[in-house]
Design brief:
Blueprint lengths: L4 E9 L3 H10 L6 E6 L8 E2 L2 E2 L3 E10 H14 L8 E8 L12
Antiparallel strand pairs: 1-5, 1-6, 2-5, 3-4
Helix pairs in contact: 1-2
């Protein structure tokens, strides 16, 4: 059985999910889910009174057809500047089964 979909997971600083979503939608993604989270990184060492601050994050989940995975990740990497330290991370996971997802077929 060949898996047809990937789950893109993009973790960015709070407020940057709009960039990720806009890029993904322009490249053919049908929607996304944003989850608020907290994280830490070697690139984020802000402290207040000697106490490390845990920066707030946004986790963007996007189910896409495998044939769009590479272009969407590449464009998100470029537009959200994920290659810069502390900007975020993005990756794709295989999706074995999907329900409630109606892909729009372009003719």
């Amino acid at each position: 059985m060949i898996n047809k979909y990937d789950l893109l997971i993009i973790i960015v600083k709070k407020g940057n999910s709009k960039i990720v979503i806009d890029v993904a939608m322009k490249q053919g993604a049908q929607g996304s889910t944003v989850i608020n989270g907290r994280g830490s990184s070697v690139h984020e060492t802000n402290k207040i009174l000697g106490i490390p601050i845990e920066p707030e994050k946004e986790i963007v989940l996007i189910v896409v057809n495998k044939n769009k995975t590479d272009i969407i990740l590449d464009m998100i990497n470029k537009e959200a500047e994920l290659e810069k330290p502390g900007r975020g991370i993005g990756f794709a996971l295989d999706v074995e089964k999907v329900v409630g997802f109606n892909e729009i077929v372009e003719i």
